[in-house]
Amino acid sequence: MIQQPDMVAPPLLRASFVVVAISMLALWGWSLVPPIENWNNPREDGFSLVGAFWSTLTCLPVGVLLLIGAAIGRGRHAARALTALLFGGVLLLLVVAFLMMQDLNDRGILQIG
Fold first, then answer.
1. b/e sequence 25-61, b meaning 16+ C-beta within 10 Å
2. Would 1 be classed as within a structural domain?
3. CB atoms within 10 A of CB 62
4. Is 87 among the domain residues?
5. Per-residue pLDDT tens digits for 5-19
């Protein structure tokens, strides 16, 4: 079996791990607000749980992997955190793009539907 060299994350990369991890965990926490607000609402149809479900499947594991990679900073944890950094960055860009489109639609600048 071929041994791969030990990957060591430089401090700037570890700092970016922390920043994206905090962003991903904040996004996950933000998705939990609508279900908590509608906890005993009899008119709630359960649709507020969709965002919390999908962010739990995407944002929470990526945020945890990034935090572990930032804390340890070497070996397979750093390699996994690098992959999670790329996935998290793309996911954050996608969420920001959708939020911008929603804001433009709410202002009446962009008419969708």
1. bebbeebeeebeebeeeeeeeeebbebbeebeebbbe
2. no
3. 27
4. yes
5. 688 889 999 999 999
Closest CA to 19 of 63, 82, 78: 63
Domain assignment of residue 22, yes or no: yes
Q: Give the chain's domain count.
A: 1
* Confidence band for 3, pLDDT divided at 50, 70 and 90: low
Region 81-110: what's the mean pLDDT?
Answer: 92
- Asked, for residue 2, whether it belongs to a domain, the answer is no
d(CA 31, CA 1): 44
Containing structural domain, residue 29: 11-37+46-107
Which range has highest mean pLDDT (3-17, 38-52, 53-67)?
Answer: 53-67
